[in-house]
Amino acid sequence: MYTNVSSSVLLSLAPLGISDSNIYPAFLFGTVTYLLIMFFNLLVLAAIVVSKKLHKPMFILLFNLPINDMMGATACFPHLVYSVVTQDRLISQPACITQAFLIHFYGTGNFLILSSMAYDRYVAICCPLRYNAVMTPQNLIKIIASIWVITFSIIVTLILLLARFKMCRTQVVGLFCNNPSLLKLVCDDIRVNNYYGLVIMCLIQGGALSIIIYTYVQIIRTCVMTNHPDARRKALQTCGSHLVVFLLLQCNTLITLIAHRIESASPYMRRVLGVSVVIFPPFFDPIIYGLKITELKQSIKGFLRRGVVSIKG
User: Fold this and answer.
1) What is the CATH superfamily name and number for domain 10-312?
2) Is the pLDDT of residue 225 over 90?
3) 70: which residues sit within 8 A by CB, 6+ positions away?
4) Residues 6+ away with beta carbon under 8 Å from 85
5) What is the reported pTM?
6) CA-based, 20 to 30 A from 209: which of 4, 120, 180, 200?
7) Cβ atoms 279, 33 nearer than 8 A
8) pLDDT top residue among 206 and 249
9) Regarding predicted confidence, which is higher, 32 or 258?
């Protein structure tokens, strides 16, 4: 019979393996990385809010990505940085499960957001005459609401399936809490959890990959056939940024999930890959979009200039 997780039990996360002489450099590196992630993503959000020319479906969908990235980074970094200084790797089960929820919410949300952005670019480039009729404000609200509702429903179910077990171990194999690591603490039959995880992984990552492949094949075909070099260059520039961001997330997440399911995989490799999922996408997403999408880059520059002028004034 399954029982609920006891909130009084403390779990022990994998040791960081940082020597005393490297504690403060590691603390500084983690803190600066987290602050840069927050700054870059907040900058993209502010530029989209302030610039009226960015109040278009493409950028409104993009607006959700920095929010999601900041949530993923915040779920991991503050506790990780705190652990570096204190060398305290203990965490309560409710806090661990909450962290796992936020990490998986962030990953699933990113795939759905990037898929919706791919669809927006497909309609804009392949069906430009229908774009305003398809991407209406009402439909845009439905797409965004669907992203968050679907993500919440999937991850709540994942966590509820986990929380029904009583954990018989306390040593988490990862540097932070996630579903595969927490399932390793359970001594009961976890086949249902594994089946659900595999199905969701195939649906979310496989579905996102299918959407990306289909839309980009159509976009490339349209760009090759168009007689307007400027329009072709702009379309490929925008889509190239999106494709790089998607592949970064897809490869990183897929390798990490596979490593967790291979018993012979190095625990150090699992830890490095796990942390990279919450470092690389949140750090590089705003940089890639900010540098490659001309409209966004100009808006960011304008926002920063106004900020400098207001400070001097």
Assistant:
1) Rhodopsin 7-helix transmembrane proteins (1.20.1070.10)
2) no
3) 37, 38, 41, 42, 282
4) 23, 27
5) 0.89
6) 180
7) yes
8) 206
9) 32
